[in-house]
Hints:
Blueprint: E1 3-7, H1 11-23, E2 34-37, E3 42-43, E4 46-47, H2 48-55, E5 71-74, H3 77-81, E6 86-90, H4 96-103, E7 112-115, E8 120-122, E9 129-131, H5 132-140, E10 144-148, H6 153-157, E11 162-167, H7 171-181, E12 186-191, H8 194-217, H9 221-242, H10 254-265, H11 268-279, H12 283-290, H13 297-311, H14 319-329, H15 336-339
Parallel strand pairs: 1-2, 1-6, 2-5, 6-7, 7-10, 11-12
Antiparallel strand pairs: 3-4, 8-9, 10-11
Amino acid sequence: MLITECISLFHRGSAVAKIVGGNVQKYDHIQNEVKMWVFEEQVDGQNLTEIINAKHENVKYLPGIKLPENIVACPDLIKTCEDATMLVFVVPHQFVASVCRQLKGKISPKCKAISLIKGVDVEENDNGFRLITDMIQDSLGIRACMLSGANIATEVAEERFCETTIGYRNKADGELFKEIFNTPTFRVNIVEDVVGVELCGALKNIIAIGGGLVDGLKLGDNTKAAIIRIGLYEMRKFAKMFYADVKDETFFESCGVADLVTTCAGGRNRKVAEAHVTTGKSFDQLEKEMLGGQKLQGTSTAKDMYGILSKKGLCKEFPLMTTIYRICYEDLPPIRIVEDI
Length: 341
């Protein structure tokens, strides 16, 4: 069985590769080599894939962290995935459709997938959006699980203890993916709720923008706690409104309240939102200056959600998400984060 990790340039993909590469060596039924798709770029005149394969380190996106020697970086998406029986998707949600188009008809129908992508795809359907796991399943004709949790990449790579959640539709798939991810410092719990896990992962990035605005305004811990509570309430309300079978218990997993808390305390969405207040610069400008090629998921997801809510006349039902969108895209003063909710 071949584990193939499909990743973007994000260092979080390399942090996941470190876990999977270490775990597969424990099992006879899983092939030792883990192929990792890396979009090719130049670093000091060398191809990034060649550096990773020679030094066993992603020197640009996860410097100082050694990757297992069975991780093989590959710049060709099709060659990376064509023999796989398990795929791990860790790309920005904006690029999933393109990746799936390239892979369609090129992978085994027996392949299974898991997504670590935190976002949704805006689409003209009854809901106004489509889940990333549904995109993968519909495009490639394979089953897809979802992994999400309070998992800041650098801390995961440094093997500091944390938890994560895998949502499954088929329990055997959930147990198989748990096998390749679970470690003493990366504790995995599996739940039969792909939708709940996925929506928690997407929506918490919006609330993290609110947490960063509160920090930039120096409004204090009480205010941030209020933003987190209101944010969790709106996350659950949205999920239940569009998917009635989402489980309440999922919001108390690592993918829910834990991820929301840690994202509002750290992470790039919070950091950039704080800088927006303190510098007055736009989110687009700060993304270019502060993230080194990574994408700011909170603002793009806020835009996606606002499009859905406004089309359905639901903006007043979700005042926090709506206000965060307006601060990001309509130049609303940041102080309105507490005045308009």
